[in-house]
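Q: My labmate handed me this sequence with no annotations at all. I'd like to see what the chain might look like in three dimensions before we decide whether it's worth expressing. Could you predict it?
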Amino acid sequence: MMKEVHGGNIYKFDHPIYDFSANLNPLGMPEEVKQAIISHIDSYESYPDPWNRELTDALSRYHGVPASSICCGNGAADIIFRTALALRPKKALLVSPTFSEYQQALETVDCQVTHSLLTEENGFQPDEKLLAAIDDSLDMMFICNPNNPTGIPVPRTLMLAICQQCQKCGVQLVIDECFTEFLDAEDQYSVMADLHRFENVIILKAFTKIYAMAGLRLGYCVCGSEETAEQIRGSLQPWAVSTVAAKAGCAALELTGFVEKTRAYIHENRTLLMDGLKRLGYQVYPSAANYIFFKSSRDLIKPLLEWDIMVRSCSNYVTLDEQYYRIAVRTREENTYFLKCLEKVTERNEGRSDG
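A: Here is what I predict for the chain of 355 residues:
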Protein backbone atom coordinates (compact mmCIF):
# COMPACT_ATOMS: atom_id res chain seq x y z
CA MET A 1 0.00 0.00 0.00
CA MET A 2 1.24 3.50 -0.84
CA LYS A 3 2.43 5.44 2.21
CA GLU A 4 0.28 8.48 2.92
CA VAL A 5 2.54 11.54 3.06
CA HIS A 6 0.21 14.31 1.91
CA GLY A 7 -2.96 16.03 2.93
CA GLY A 8 -6.16 15.97 0.89
CA ASN A 9 -6.97 12.26 1.15
CA ILE A 10 -10.70 12.75 1.64
CA TYR A 11 -11.37 9.40 -0.03
CA LYS A 12 -10.66 7.41 3.12
CA PHE A 13 -13.90 8.76 4.62
CA ASP A 14 -17.42 7.64 3.74
CA HIS A 15 -18.94 11.03 4.58
CA PRO A 16 -18.22 14.72 3.92
CA ILE A 17 -15.21 16.12 5.75
CA TYR A 18 -13.86 19.58 6.53
CA ASP A 19 -10.52 19.30 4.77
CA PHE A 20 -7.96 21.64 6.31
CA SER A 21 -5.12 19.34 5.23
CA ALA A 22 -4.86 20.45 1.57
CA ASN A 23 -3.74 23.99 0.73
CA LEU A 24 -6.18 24.84 -2.06
CA ASN A 25 -7.84 28.15 -2.87
CA PRO A 26 -10.94 28.36 -0.63
CA LEU A 27 -12.75 30.32 -3.35
CA GLY A 28 -12.70 27.15 -5.44
CA MET A 29 -12.19 26.63 -9.14
CA PRO A 30 -13.18 29.77 -11.09
CA GLU A 31 -16.46 29.51 -13.01
CA GLU A 32 -14.68 30.54 -16.22
CA VAL A 33 -12.41 27.53 -15.88
CA LYS A 34 -15.37 25.21 -15.31
CA GLN A 35 -17.08 26.60 -18.41
CA ALA A 36 -13.92 26.10 -20.47
CA ILE A 37 -13.83 22.44 -19.40
CA ILE A 38 -17.44 21.95 -20.45
CA SER A 39 -17.31 23.93 -23.71
CA HIS A 40 -14.34 21.97 -25.09
CA ILE A 41 -15.72 18.53 -24.25
CA ASP A 42 -15.86 17.44 -27.90
CA SER A 43 -12.08 17.81 -28.21
CA TYR A 44 -11.34 15.27 -25.48
CA GLU A 45 -11.82 12.25 -27.74
CA SER A 46 -8.55 13.05 -29.57
CA TYR A 47 -5.04 12.66 -28.14
CA PRO A 48 -3.67 15.75 -26.40
CA ASP A 49 -1.09 17.95 -28.12
CA PRO A 50 2.24 16.35 -27.05
CA TRP A 51 3.93 19.77 -27.25
CA ASN A 52 1.22 21.63 -25.27
CA ARG A 53 1.52 24.50 -27.76
CA GLU A 54 -1.61 26.45 -26.83
CA LEU A 55 -0.89 26.25 -23.11
CA THR A 56 2.83 26.96 -23.49
CA ASP A 57 2.12 30.03 -25.64
CA ALA A 58 -0.37 31.29 -23.04
CA LEU A 59 2.19 30.79 -20.25
CA SER A 60 4.83 32.56 -22.33
CA ARG A 61 2.62 35.63 -22.64
CA TYR A 62 1.56 35.49 -18.99
CA HIS A 63 5.09 35.38 -17.57
CA GLY A 64 6.89 37.25 -20.36
CA VAL A 65 9.33 34.39 -20.98
CA PRO A 66 10.24 32.42 -24.13
CA ALA A 67 7.90 29.51 -24.84
CA SER A 68 10.98 27.34 -25.37
CA SER A 69 11.90 27.80 -21.69
CA ILE A 70 8.65 26.25 -20.43
CA CYS A 71 7.94 22.58 -19.65
CA CYS A 72 4.41 21.44 -18.75
CA GLY A 73 3.55 18.30 -16.83
CA ASN A 74 1.04 16.28 -14.84
CA GLY A 75 1.22 18.52 -11.79
CA ALA A 76 4.24 20.10 -10.13
CA ALA A 77 5.21 16.75 -8.60
CA ASP A 78 5.59 15.31 -12.10
CA ILE A 79 7.96 18.15 -13.04
CA ILE A 80 10.01 17.56 -9.87
CA PHE A 81 10.53 13.89 -10.68
CA ARG A 82 11.20 14.58 -14.36
CA THR A 83 13.77 17.25 -13.48
CA ALA A 84 15.67 14.77 -11.32
CA LEU A 85 15.42 12.14 -14.06
CA ALA A 86 16.59 14.50 -16.80
CA LEU A 87 19.49 16.14 -14.96
CA ARG A 88 20.51 13.21 -12.69
CA PRO A 89 22.32 15.11 -9.94
CA LYS A 90 24.80 13.22 -7.78
CA LYS A 91 24.53 15.44 -4.73
CA ALA A 92 21.74 17.84 -3.82
CA LEU A 93 20.85 20.26 -1.05
CA LEU A 94 17.38 20.75 0.43
CA VAL A 95 16.33 23.61 2.69
CA SER A 96 14.41 21.63 5.30
CA PRO A 97 11.86 20.93 6.67
CA THR A 98 10.18 21.10 3.29
CA PHE A 99 8.04 19.33 0.68
CA SER A 100 8.88 15.60 0.71
CA GLU A 101 8.70 15.13 -3.07
CA TYR A 102 12.08 16.79 -3.58
CA GLN A 103 13.91 14.09 -1.66
CA GLN A 104 11.77 11.30 -3.08
CA ALA A 105 12.52 12.43 -6.63
CA LEU A 106 16.25 12.78 -5.98
CA GLU A 107 16.46 9.35 -4.39
CA THR A 108 14.98 7.74 -7.52
CA VAL A 109 18.20 8.69 -9.35
CA ASP A 110 20.45 7.65 -6.42
CA CYS A 111 21.30 11.23 -5.54
CA GLN A 112 22.95 11.96 -2.19
CA VAL A 113 20.67 14.35 -0.31
CA THR A 114 21.94 16.83 2.26
CA HIS A 115 19.94 19.33 4.31
CA SER A 116 20.36 22.93 5.37
CA LEU A 117 18.09 23.02 8.40
CA LEU A 118 15.67 25.76 9.34
CA THR A 119 15.59 25.64 13.13
CA GLU A 120 12.85 26.10 15.69
CA GLU A 121 15.23 28.30 17.69
CA ASN A 122 15.29 30.72 14.75
CA GLY A 123 11.54 30.44 14.17
CA PHE A 124 12.18 28.41 10.98
CA GLN A 125 13.20 31.69 9.33
CA PRO A 126 15.52 31.49 6.30
CA ASP A 127 18.62 33.68 6.54
CA GLU A 128 22.07 34.28 5.03
CA LYS A 129 23.39 31.09 6.63
CA LEU A 130 21.86 29.28 3.64
CA LEU A 131 24.58 30.78 1.44
CA ALA A 132 27.33 29.02 3.41
CA ALA A 133 25.75 25.63 2.65
CA ILE A 134 26.13 26.12 -1.12
CA ASP A 135 29.44 24.97 -2.59
CA ASP A 136 30.81 23.32 -5.71
CA SER A 137 30.32 19.81 -4.29
CA LEU A 138 26.60 20.18 -5.08
CA ASP A 139 24.88 19.52 -8.39
CA MET A 140 21.40 20.70 -7.44
CA MET A 141 19.49 22.60 -4.77
CA PHE A 142 15.75 22.75 -4.03
CA ILE A 143 14.17 25.61 -2.12
CA CYS A 144 10.45 26.25 -1.60
CA ASN A 145 9.35 29.89 -1.48
CA PRO A 146 7.20 30.37 0.55
CA ASN A 147 8.24 27.23 2.32
CA ASN A 148 5.95 24.27 2.84
CA PRO A 149 4.90 23.58 5.64
CA THR A 150 5.91 26.81 7.43
CA GLY A 151 4.45 29.35 4.98
CA ILE A 152 7.46 31.60 5.65
CA PRO A 153 8.85 33.20 2.46
CA VAL A 154 12.43 33.98 1.47
CA PRO A 155 12.83 37.70 0.69
CA ARG A 156 13.75 38.42 -2.93
CA THR A 157 17.11 39.94 -1.95
CA LEU A 158 18.18 36.72 -0.22
CA MET A 159 16.69 34.63 -3.00
CA LEU A 160 18.78 36.50 -5.57
CA ALA A 161 21.90 35.98 -3.44
CA ILE A 162 21.15 32.24 -3.40
CA CYS A 163 20.74 32.31 -7.20
CA GLN A 164 24.09 34.03 -7.55
CA GLN A 165 25.88 31.68 -5.15
CA CYS A 166 24.46 28.65 -6.99
CA GLN A 167 25.52 30.13 -10.32
CA LYS A 168 29.04 30.75 -8.99
CA CYS A 169 29.32 27.17 -7.74
CA GLY A 170 27.74 25.51 -10.79
CA VAL A 171 24.65 24.34 -8.89
CA GLN A 172 21.30 23.83 -10.61
CA LEU A 173 18.77 25.68 -8.45
CA VAL A 174 15.09 24.66 -8.42
CA ILE A 175 12.84 27.27 -6.80
CA ASP A 176 9.32 26.10 -5.98
CA GLU A 177 7.06 29.15 -6.36
CA CYS A 178 3.77 27.26 -6.37
CA PHE A 179 2.42 29.39 -3.51
CA THR A 180 3.75 32.86 -4.40
CA GLU A 181 0.38 34.00 -5.80
CA PHE A 182 -1.04 33.84 -2.26
CA LEU A 183 1.54 36.29 -0.88
CA ASP A 184 0.41 39.84 -0.22
CA ALA A 185 3.35 41.23 -2.24
CA GLU A 186 4.48 38.54 -4.69
CA ASP A 187 7.08 40.78 -6.34
CA GLN A 188 8.97 41.07 -3.03
CA TYR A 189 9.69 37.33 -3.13
CA SER A 190 9.45 35.90 -6.65
CA VAL A 191 12.50 35.91 -8.93
CA MET A 192 10.54 35.17 -12.11
CA ALA A 193 11.37 38.64 -13.47
CA ASP A 194 15.09 37.95 -12.91
CA LEU A 195 15.16 34.49 -14.48
CA HIS A 196 16.86 35.72 -17.67
CA ARG A 197 19.96 36.46 -15.55
CA PHE A 198 20.38 32.89 -14.30
CA GLU A 199 20.80 29.95 -16.68
CA ASN A 200 21.14 27.67 -13.66
CA VAL A 201 17.67 28.42 -12.24
CA ILE A 202 14.40 26.53 -12.71
CA ILE A 203 11.18 27.99 -11.30
CA LEU A 204 8.45 25.49 -10.49
CA LYS A 205 4.79 26.56 -10.80
CA ALA A 206 1.35 24.93 -10.72
CA PHE A 207 -2.33 25.65 -11.30
CA THR A 208 -3.14 23.25 -8.46
CA LYS A 209 -3.30 25.63 -5.52
CA ILE A 210 -4.25 29.09 -6.73
CA TYR A 211 -6.96 27.87 -9.16
CA ALA A 212 -8.10 24.87 -7.05
CA MET A 213 -7.37 22.46 -9.90
CA ALA A 214 -5.75 19.66 -7.88
CA GLY A 215 -7.77 16.93 -9.57
CA LEU A 216 -6.84 18.07 -13.08
CA ARG A 217 -3.06 17.78 -12.46
CA LEU A 218 -1.35 20.69 -14.19
CA GLY A 219 2.09 22.02 -13.34
CA TYR A 220 5.01 23.53 -15.21
CA CYS A 221 8.47 24.94 -14.85
CA VAL A 222 10.22 27.91 -16.41
CA CYS A 223 13.94 27.45 -17.01
CA GLY A 224 16.67 30.04 -17.23
CA SER A 225 18.29 27.87 -19.90
CA GLU A 226 16.43 26.66 -22.98
CA GLU A 227 18.85 23.71 -23.10
CA THR A 228 17.75 22.67 -19.60
CA ALA A 229 14.12 23.01 -20.62
CA GLU A 230 14.75 20.74 -23.59
CA GLN A 231 16.36 18.14 -21.33
CA ILE A 232 13.34 18.12 -19.01
CA ARG A 233 10.90 17.96 -21.93
CA GLY A 234 12.85 14.96 -23.21
CA SER A 235 12.13 13.10 -19.98
CA LEU A 236 8.36 13.67 -20.08
CA GLN A 237 5.87 11.09 -21.27
CA PRO A 238 4.32 11.92 -24.68
CA TRP A 239 0.98 13.11 -23.26
CA ALA A 240 1.90 14.48 -19.83
CA VAL A 241 -0.89 17.07 -19.96
CA SER A 242 -4.46 16.11 -20.81
CA THR A 243 -6.49 18.29 -23.16
CA VAL A 244 -8.97 19.07 -20.40
CA ALA A 245 -6.17 20.28 -18.11
CA ALA A 246 -4.63 22.38 -20.88
CA LYS A 247 -7.96 24.05 -21.73
CA ALA A 248 -8.57 24.75 -18.05
CA GLY A 249 -5.10 26.23 -17.68
CA CYS A 250 -5.52 28.53 -20.68
CA ALA A 251 -8.84 29.78 -19.30
CA ALA A 252 -7.29 30.42 -15.88
CA LEU A 253 -4.51 32.53 -17.39
CA GLU A 254 -7.09 34.81 -19.04
CA LEU A 255 -8.78 35.71 -15.75
CA THR A 256 -8.51 39.24 -14.40
CA GLY A 257 -8.80 40.08 -10.74
CA PHE A 258 -9.07 36.50 -9.48
CA VAL A 259 -5.60 36.34 -7.91
CA GLU A 260 -6.04 39.75 -6.29
CA LYS A 261 -9.44 38.75 -4.88
CA THR A 262 -7.90 35.54 -3.55
CA ARG A 263 -5.04 37.38 -1.84
CA ALA A 264 -7.42 39.70 -0.01
CA TYR A 265 -9.61 36.79 1.09
CA ILE A 266 -6.61 34.75 2.25
CA HIS A 267 -5.13 37.70 4.15
CA GLU A 268 -8.35 38.30 6.06
CA ASN A 269 -8.97 34.65 6.94
CA ARG A 270 -5.33 33.85 7.67
CA THR A 271 -5.40 36.63 10.26
CA LEU A 272 -8.63 35.20 11.72
CA LEU A 273 -7.11 31.73 12.09
CA MET A 274 -3.74 32.87 13.41
CA ASP A 275 -5.34 35.14 16.00
CA GLY A 276 -7.69 32.35 17.05
CA LEU A 277 -4.87 29.83 17.42
CA LYS A 278 -2.81 32.27 19.49
CA ARG A 279 -5.82 33.05 21.69
CA LEU A 280 -6.17 29.34 22.42
CA GLY A 281 -2.52 29.16 23.46
CA TYR A 282 -0.90 27.51 20.45
CA GLN A 283 2.53 28.47 19.16
CA VAL A 284 1.95 29.94 15.70
CA TYR A 285 4.65 30.70 13.15
CA PRO A 286 4.42 33.76 10.86
CA SER A 287 2.99 32.27 7.68
CA ALA A 288 2.43 34.57 4.71
CA ALA A 289 0.81 31.86 2.57
CA ASN A 290 -2.60 30.20 2.41
CA TYR A 291 -1.73 27.77 5.20
CA ILE A 292 -0.65 28.08 8.83
CA PHE A 293 2.06 26.19 10.69
CA PHE A 294 1.67 25.76 14.44
CA LYS A 295 2.69 23.62 17.38
CA SER A 296 0.59 21.71 19.91
CA SER A 297 1.73 19.76 22.96
CA ARG A 298 -1.22 17.39 22.54
CA ASP A 299 -2.53 15.29 19.66
CA LEU A 300 -5.12 17.07 17.53
CA ILE A 301 -5.66 14.58 14.69
CA LYS A 302 -8.10 12.21 16.39
CA PRO A 303 -9.95 14.79 18.51
CA LEU A 304 -10.63 17.01 15.49
CA LEU A 305 -11.77 14.05 13.40
CA GLU A 306 -14.59 13.64 15.92
CA TRP A 307 -15.81 16.98 14.51
CA ASP A 308 -15.17 15.81 10.93
CA ILE A 309 -12.14 18.07 10.61
CA MET A 310 -8.98 16.79 8.93
CA VAL A 311 -5.68 18.63 9.55
CA ARG A 312 -2.18 17.89 8.34
CA SER A 313 0.31 16.34 10.73
CA CYS A 314 3.86 17.45 9.91
CA SER A 315 5.49 14.45 11.58
CA ASN A 316 6.86 13.12 8.26
CA TYR A 317 8.86 16.29 7.56
CA VAL A 318 12.60 16.29 8.28
CA THR A 319 13.28 17.45 11.90
CA LEU A 320 9.56 17.77 12.75
CA ASP A 321 7.44 15.49 14.93
CA GLU A 322 3.84 14.93 16.01
CA GLN A 323 3.71 18.29 17.78
CA TYR A 324 3.66 20.23 14.50
CA TYR A 325 0.60 20.81 12.34
CA ARG A 326 -0.33 22.64 9.17
CA ILE A 327 -3.83 23.84 8.36
CA ALA A 328 -5.15 25.42 5.20
CA VAL A 329 -6.91 28.77 5.18
CA ARG A 330 -10.46 27.85 4.19
CA THR A 331 -13.71 29.81 3.86
CA ARG A 332 -14.81 32.15 6.67
CA GLU A 333 -17.55 29.70 7.69
CA GLU A 334 -15.14 26.74 7.75
CA ASN A 335 -12.47 28.70 9.62
CA THR A 336 -14.98 29.80 12.24
CA TYR A 337 -16.19 26.23 12.65
CA PHE A 338 -12.59 25.01 12.98
CA LEU A 339 -11.78 27.50 15.75
CA LYS A 340 -15.00 26.68 17.60
CA CYS A 341 -14.21 22.95 17.53
CA LEU A 342 -10.55 23.48 18.38
CA GLU A 343 -11.58 25.52 21.40
CA LYS A 344 -13.67 22.58 22.65
CA VAL A 345 -10.80 20.15 22.00
CA THR A 346 -8.39 22.46 23.83
CA GLU A 347 -10.69 22.82 26.82
CA ARG A 348 -11.09 19.05 26.99
CA ASN A 349 -7.33 18.52 26.77
CA GLU A 350 -6.79 20.98 29.59
CA GLY A 351 -9.48 19.36 31.71
CA ARG A 352 -11.73 22.42 31.79
CA SER A 353 -14.62 20.75 29.99
CA ASP A 354 -15.93 17.29 29.28
CA GLY A 355 -16.28 18.32 25.57
